[in-house]
Design brief:
about 130 residues; mainly alpha; two-stranded antiparallel sheet; 5 helices; about 60% helix; globular
């Protein structure tokens, strides 16, 4: 099968083609779990918090505390691509314990199925989910 990517219908055709091979709900779950683990393991936690803020802005409302509070605080203090430099330790020391606890809580909800991605997307292209 070939797709002419110049045509307006190309994204729809590609979506139909890939939907049969990719479990988008599982993909979104794994992507979010990876982000949460970056925070929990303190693997570039500042950047992960900024990414959590982006996910919150794209409709993942369960990331309100993690993304909209902690992630937004990091974004406002250090910009969109924070790197651990002198002075960042203070910000991280203040918010990290609470952010880690919130990341663990969300990961537990994700693993237990209390938060479940549907595999569908909004018109804007953001993942949809349900909360139990």
């Amino acid at each position: 099968m070939s797709i002419d990517f110049q045509e307006a219908t190309a994204p729809s055709l590609l979506n139909k083609l890939l939907r049969g091979y990719i479990d988008w709900a599982q993909h979104e779950k794994e992507e979010l779990a990876e982000l949460l683990m970056d925070i929990i393991w303190k693997e570039d936690a500042l950047a992960a918090l900024v990414r959590a803020h982006e996910h919150f802005k794209h409709g993942l409302r369960f990331l309100n505390v993690l993304g909209n509070e902690y992630g937004l605080a990091v974004l406002n203090a250090y910009g969109p691509e924070p790197k651990l430099k002198e002075g960042h330790e203070n910000m991280l020391a203040v918010i990290y314990p609470k952010a880690r606890d919130e990341a663990k809580r969300i990961l537990t909800c994700l693993v237990s199925g209390k938060i479940k991605f549907t595999g569908t997307y909004t018109q804007e292209g953001y993942p949809e989910y349900v909360e139990a």
